[in-house]
Amino acid sequence: MKCSILSAFFFCCASSFAQQKSIPLSTSLTNSKLFEKAFNNDTIQLLDFKSGGNTGGLFVLYQKSDTLNFKNAFYSNHPDRENYILQGLAYYEKKPGAWRLKFANDYALFCASCNNMHGYDMNVHKDTVQLSITWGPNSFSSTETYWFNWRPALKRWQLSRTKANGSDDAGEERRIYQEFNSNSNVFLDNYVAETLLSEQPSGTTAGALSLYYKPGNYKGLLDSLYRVPQSSFPMLPFVFSTTDATYFNNEPITGKQVQSANDVGYFLEQANSLAVAEIILKQVIEAFPKREVAYYNLGDVYLKQGNKALAAVNYNIYINLMTERKLQSKIPKKVQDFVNANRGLLSN
Fold it and tell me: Signal sequence: where (predicted)?
């Protein structure tokens, strides 16, 4: 359930003064209880905070009440109290003697009750702030992740990437990834989390890729991958990651699936999504240890990764299996030449 316009109006107008303007520099950043004591007041409460990054500032996630304060009985016993709590992000600059408030974005997270919002995470690394929000009922959940990069010329964090992972009650997984160019007018201090993925200005997207599939359906996944344009191959790890590959199938690959599963691994290797291809091909080999072509494809993965030893090992297994079946004539010369030239690696 989204907050009403009236509720948002009260938040914006009545609680804008509630944000702490400064926090003593002496406040411990290693003791969350002490920091909470310095930060909290009647209308704003600490959720999380992170220091670090190239700017040396302090990022704070908070929750904010409306015209009432958190001491009011409304917030302890009213069933709709979460409809009147916003969750936002503030940034404090390090100044002599204090952390000084640079900005406070009351809409950086979903409100406490919006769309069954039930999880969030914040990471700060060098010049990037990453925020993830998980929302929705168990039968239709979604995790949205946003990356904001520091732009020194603008002195602001500009939206650079977004990703949405979700599933529906029919079991279909959806992965949507977007990259943004310098025309984007979306920044850490002004974006609205509830509309960020659905209301992007035209002309700001530098690239986008979507992938839809049902876990365990290798043929369906392969069909989806075939629709990915070659120009979008570098984005594949963002819509089908190593985690997605690891948990794609909870059961061993069957004889009916093995051809499509192997083809998925081959496609990903050809698209240079090597870490993901490695996982799929290992799953094929685990279920079908005599499947020659899987070792060939896995050898190609390791060769592209620069691991000659593992490439030689897998190529050699491929050659031996092909020889067992008297299919030596079908072994590519380049594979035989590579193994002959690297036999010293096999003994290691």
Answer: 1-18
Total domain count for the chain?
1
Q: Looking at the domain assignment, is residue 250 inside a domain?
A: no
Residue 209 included in any domain: yes
Number of neighbours of residue 199 by Cβ within 10 angstroms: 10
Select from 154, 155, 145, 129 the least CA-distant residue to 179: 145
For residue 132, tell me if it sits in a domain.
Answer: yes
Alpha-carbon separation of residue 233 from 106, 207, 248 (angstroms)? 37, 11, 20
Per the structure, the complete domain to which residue 171 belongs is given by 5-213
| β-sheet with 58-64: strand ranges across | 22-24, 98-105, 86-95, 58-64, 44-51
Residues of the chain with pLDDT under 70: 1-17, 138-139, 199-203, 348
**Structure confidence at residue 7 (pLDDT):** 41
Q: Is residue 93 part of a domain?
A: yes
